[in-house]
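Hi support team,

I submitted a single chain yesterday and got back a structure, but I'm not sure I'm reading the token output correctly. Could someone confirm the output below corresponds to the sequence I sent? I've pasted both exactly as they appear in my results page.

Thanks,
R.
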Amino acid sequence: MTIELWITVLVVGLLIVLSPGSQWMVTIKNSLSSKTHGMFTVWGMCSGSMIHILYCLLGIGIIIPQSVLLFNLIKWLGAAYLIYLGVKALFFQKEEPGLSFQRVTSPVGLSKWTAYRNGFFTSLLNPKATLFYLSLFTQVIHPEVAIGV
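Hi R., thanks for writing in. Yes, this is the structure output for that exact sequence:
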């Protein structure tokens, strides 16, 4: 693969990552508790994205958009997970009522593993990620392109 293809994939991927969406919101929410939780969330999202990339490059990703049942299953699981996170955030109460200017360093129930898991499942259960990687790879990477550098 040429350096131009690598740069194209990198730039398009960065633009998608920087655009607001569910992953962006989960990252912001977890980053408000601490930088460490934000980083673990991002690492979880990267792990989920790597799974999307792997099955798209192997050709398995083409099955998901063509199977209405599978696509809807992933879509509804993703929606249910985001609703779960939203309801959980709504019913989370701070120790002191009202606004506080002190940084909460460790909210109840949020550990590094929980932050990673939030990021991982938010990424993995996003059906748009499959469509994004499929469309990117079919436009940029052709079957005759060698993957190695």
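A quick pointer for reading it: Residues 55 and 144 are 18 Å apart (CA to CA). Let us know if anything else looks off.

Best,
Support desk
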